[in-house]
Amino acid sequence: MGIQYFNQDISFVLPQKRVISRWIKQVSAEEERKIGNVCFIFCDDNYLLNINKEYLKHDFYTDVITFDDSENNIISGDIFISIDTVKENATLYSKDFLDEMHRVLVHGVLHLCGYHDKSDVEERHMRFLEDKYLAFLENK
Could you give the domains of the chain? Predict the structure, then answer.
């Protein structure tokens, strides 16, 4: 149980895992949730594309895919993150790589908390929450 970090076919080390884990616990507490088993799996574009095709029937690259196993107020699930796409998006949006990574991390956690981003309204609300919780991390 708890928050775990894994790599799939890549070498990547998330800096300050303890700080990140405390932050994620703080986010879940703010959302009135508890942490069950949350796994972050860092991978490359091709690995995540294959997941997107196989499980979601989408044929495009993405930065994050969340598989939600949450029950009641306990968040659990697997959050797959493409390091390649996070790097590309950081460049595209003129952001620091780690800032973009933190946004993707909290985005996945928000999905586990029950938020969606299918409609424009949902996407705007999700972005608002991302910004709110990213400010928590800046204060650590």
Answer: 2-138 (3.40.390.30)
- Residue for token pair 């895992």: 17
Instruction: Name the residue type at position 91.
Output: T
| Residue 5 half-sphere exposure toward CB, CA atoms < 13 A | 13
> pLDDT band at 19, cuts 50/70/90?
very high
**The tokens 């508890």 sit on which residue?**
34
Q: Which pTM does this prediction carry?
A: 0.95
Spatial contact of 134 and 26, defined as CB atoms under 8 Å apart: no
Q: What is the mean pLDDT of the chain?
A: 95
Phi-psi region of 57 (alpha: psi -120 to 50; beta: other; left: phi over 0): left
Phi, psi of 34, deg, nearest 5:
-115, 155
pLDDT digits (tens, 9 = 90+) for 2-13: 999 999 989 999
Ranges assigned E (strand) in the chain: 2-7, 34-43, 64-68, 74-82
pLDDT in tens, 59-108: 998 999 999 999 999 999 999 999 999 999 999 999 999 999 999 999 99
| For helices 97-112 and 83-92, angle between their N-to-C axes, nearest 10 degrees | 120
**What pLDDT score does 138 carry?**
79
